[in-house]
Amino acid sequence: MLQGEKYDMHFKILLLGDSRVGKSSLLQKFVGETVNDFYVESLGVELKETIRNFSNSRIKLRIYDASGNPKLGFLLNQYLSIAQGVFVCFDVTNSFSFDNVENHVKKVKAAHSDIPIFLIGCKSDLSLERSVETEKIKNLAERLGLPYFATSSRKDVNVSEPFMQIMQQMYFLSLPQKMAPILEQHLNDYLNSLPQSNNFSSLFTTRSAKENLLIEEYKKNFAKLCQAKEVHDLEDFCRETLDIIERANLLFANENPILSVIATSPLSKTLGKILSDLSKSAKDFIDLPAFDSNKLTIS
């Protein structure tokens, strides 16, 4: 257990699977502990912690190793309810453990319909003892729509990769909740700064009815962003917002031909700030053109 170490955020990962499939050895290897040469059954659910760096953040991983003993199955629901990512593990030398994979996946999806689930084949170095064909595993992973990793704690094969990839997925899924208040504040500041209709006295601070339509369109796109589950959802939001920025600039030029010579659309500048903040937080997932929110140019 880590005591006193600073971190920016934390995620919880649950390791599921039958007894003796290699869950504990995989976790021990990942956190840098000595892997036992003999089998020691996990008693209930054991917790290990480690801190990893990603996207300029220190991320604590709390990893729960659940016993595969059916008599302790009642403990699973408690930990499934808090898990943000799950490994369903099996032993490639034990076909029975592979046959139980789908049941484990069903339990996870019954508790969480949309958290990352990885399929983990342990003891992949024991090729002479293998009883589960690779093709059979890949077919199941494809049918269930799950990433698959063949691992070996003994040979240190694919030990870190699945943990790091699921951490990145959990980080991505946390982005909408993390960024929504910040992005929302940009638009609220803009909306609160301007009156609703044109008049001569507010020549430099007005918002037209047509601009209101663009704002409503943006709000609908923003609502979809808050439900983003895949990178393409983020890319769609950025592409749609870029389109609104372009149309806002054209609208501003048409409605303010003189003013547009010396100023840019306030709405475009606001949306540019939103994309700028989003691109900084999501830089590891999308390649968004950089924004100068003051000049509103794309480089």
From TrEMBL:
Q: What is an example of a GO molecular function annotated in this UniProt entry?
A: GTP binding
What SMART domains has UniProt attached to this entry?
RAB (SM00175), RAN (SM00176), RAS (SM00173), RHO (SM00174)
Segment forming the signal sequence: none
Family matches, as Pfam families: Ras
UniProt keyword annotation of ATP-binding present: no
Report the superkingdom from the record. Answer: Bacteria
Entry keyword Disulfide bond: no
Q: Which residues cross the membrane?
A: none
Q: Which keywords accompany this UniProt record?
A: Nucleotide-binding
- Record NCBIfam families: small_GTP
In Swiss-Prot or TrEMBL terms, this protein is called: Ras family GTPase
Q: Which organism is it from?
A: Legionella steigerwaltii
